[in-house]
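Consider the tokenized backbone below.
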């Protein structure tokens, strides 16, 4: 079922850190998803302080640091490029929706604060939910297909 917004409506999305990392450092589906969102005026991307702190931490780990070196980008550059395309939200609460991985609750909290339609994640705990309240939780390929429809 396509989830493209009707005329004048705005599709609101939150990307999990694993998707942002993949989109920033590789050229696969998450990259094309982020590029599509950036080019569409009818879509808005949201993140929170907790998610940006997690991204900053992950970018300094060995694997991502090696990849950043290969593509000639610093962690600061990657963060700055991502911050340029997002709107910040400040969640009022963090739900206990993912008992198996409480860090994933920050993604849901950001989505609630943003009034998001879709969370995009590669995390099995979030994907296992499929939906939180009215927010769909999709892997990158399904999200890209949905917004391209």
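A designed sequence for it:
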């Amino acid at each position: 079922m396509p989830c493209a917004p009707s005329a004048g409506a705005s599709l609101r999305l939150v990307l999990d850190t694993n998707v942002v990392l993949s989109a920033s450092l590789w050229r696969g589906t998450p990259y094309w998803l982020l590029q599509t969102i950036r080019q569409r005026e009818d879509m808005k991307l949201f993140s929170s302080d907790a998610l940006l702190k997690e991204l900053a931490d992950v970018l300094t780990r060995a694997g991502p640091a090696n990849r950043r070196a290969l593509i000639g980008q610093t962690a600061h550059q990657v963060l700055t490029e991502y911050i340029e395309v997002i709107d910040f939200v400040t969640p009022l609460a963090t739900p206990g929706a993912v008992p198996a991985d409480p860090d994933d609750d920050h993604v849901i909290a950001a989505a609630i604060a943003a009034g998001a339609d879709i969370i995009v994640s590669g995390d099995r705990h979030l994907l296992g939910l499929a939906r939180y309240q009215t927010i769909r939780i999709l892997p990158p390929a399904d999200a890209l297909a949905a917004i391209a429809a």
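The first helix runs from residue 17 to 25.
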